[in-house]
Amino acid sequence: MLMRSTGLGKTLLHCQAVKVESTNIVPETLKDPADGHKERKRLLMTIKTTTPVSWTVHAFVEPKDVRQLVWYFFTTPSAVWRAIRFMLFGGESPSVKVMKKKKEEKKKIVKEKTANKKTSQALPATSAGQ
What we know:
- There is one protein chain.
- By secondary structure, the chain is α+β, with helices and mostly antiparallel strands.
- The chain contains three helices and four strands; from the N terminus they run E-E-E-E-H-H-H.
- Helix 1 (63-75) packs across helix 2 (77-89).
- The longest helix has 27 residues, at 96-122.
- It is elongated, with a radius of gyration of 28 Å.
């Protein structure tokens, strides 16, 4: 996973999700709630940054955020398809972009060949006996 923060300028953080769990710990203290206090359930994502620094980030996902994600996937079926394809093939599956790139490469080769033919035809033929 890659992350950027406006507080770090253009620094790109390389990280990975370590754990995702449902919990009721207090976000401010990362401890269980004190006796008699109730804390609502949240989804806790623990993320480890690896480059350029080594940090542990705890992201508390609120129910509103989960609803927003679910709503996005329900209203954007192509996003569901892309997510499934990404999980199965890791983004390396053949796609329209890959096919376009191959087509562009073929066009480039054809242009180079025609340019080579034109330059060879433009050069005057020298005769050996003059």
